[in-house]
Design a protein that fits this description.
three-stranded mixed beta sheet, 14% strand, alpha/beta, elongated, GMP Synthetase, Chain A, domain 3, 10 helices, Histidine-containing Protein, Chain: A, 3 domains, 6 strands, single chain
Length: 315
């Protein structure tokens, strides 16, 4: 580089002029080549005629033309490149959409093709399961039949077992017959059998009841003889009456307690030989009547005496 500067200094003005020309050529040639390349690209994209006309118009208008053409070329170059890129991008997107659409259609066809196959497999599997169940069921039935066949046959029930005879006892027949008699019903008479001989024991009030019991038993079929061990007890009837009166009094008290009005009065209740005796105090005679009506419905009550009920005035 230093020798070149020395030569230029010796040459003087001519040397500097030559150097300047050299630098201009070095700078302008690449620019012109770039402009030519842009024109060729414009021809390919179809926009060359308009850009060329525009460049010529601007060249004529400028007079010199060269600097403005280069600037226009420089401005048109990025636009052309952007347009090319946009076209390529659009083409790529359209291509991608077409490929996606094709893939979707292929996938749908594959799925439609697979559905009948899966359905057929499911039907085959269901048929197989049904067949297996049927086979298992038939095996179980065959096994049960074989077991039933292997069991020994039970003898048929006799006709006598089908219609069983009633179970009866002569002892029970005698007791039921004695309880059916109204005079003997209140008394507890025991019966024992010695072969076909009936033995009677217990207590009765009088000789009349004793003889009556023996006569009833002799008339029963199957009894050949009667041994009468019944004991007459005059106090038995009184004890039975007393027991019956206690039962009647208890039932009357329960009946009066069901009414709030009669319960509030607090009647005293007694029974003598089936006659109910009421006592107490009340302001209303109708309440005494209501109590007598309640006692009258008790079984065994022969009469109701309310003379012990006092009708009082209010204190």
């Amino acid at each position: 580089m230093v020798p070149l500067l020395v030569i230029i200094r010796k040459a003087g003005a001519a040397g500097w002029l030559a150097l300047l020309c050299f630098l201009l050529l070095y700078w302008e040639v690449p620019r012109l080549d770039a402009a030519d390349n842009n024109e060729e690209r414009s021809k390919d994209s179809g926009s060359l005629p308009e850009s060329k006309k525009k460049q010529e118009t601007e060249t004529k208008a400028d007079g010199g033309g060269k600097p403005s053409v280069e600037e226009k070329v420089r401005e048109e170059k990025p636009k052309t490149e952007d347009k090319g890129r946009t076209d390529e991008k659009a083409k790529a997107e359209d291509k991608g959409k077409i490929e996606d659409k094709g893939k979707t259609e292929e996938k749908a066809k594959i799925e439609e093709k697979a559905k009948p196959e899966e359905k057929a497999k499911a039907e085959d599997k269901g048929k197989g399961d049904d067949k297996a169940k049927s086979e298992d069921k038939s095996k179980v039935e065959e096994k049960a039949k074989s077991e039933d066949k292997a069991k020994p046959e039970e003898p048929q029930a006799k006709t006598e077992d089908a219609g069983k005879k009633p179970v009866t006892s002569l002892n029970l027949t005698i007791k039921l017959t004695l309880m059916a008699d109204p005079l003997l019903f209140p008394f507890d008479i025991e019966v024992e059998m010695d072969n076909r001989k009936a033995v009677l024991s217990g207590n009765v009030p009088t000789e009349e009841e004793k003889s009556r019991a023996a006569d009833i038993v002799k008339k029963i079929d199957g009894v050949d003889a009667v041994v009468n061990k019944l004991t007459p007890s005059p106090a038995l009837r009184a004890s039975l009456v007393k027991k019956q009166d206690e039962t009647i009094a208890h039932l009357v008290r329960d009946r009066l307690a069901r009414s709030e009005t009669l319960k509030a009065v607090g009647f005293d209740v007694k029974a003598e030989n089936g006659v109910v005796l009421l006592s107490g105090k009340t302001r209303f005679q109708v309440i005494a009547l209501e109590a007598a009506e309640a006692a009258r419905h008790i079984p065994g009550v022969r009469a109701v005496n309310t003379s012990g009920v006092q009708i009082i005035t209010k204190e």
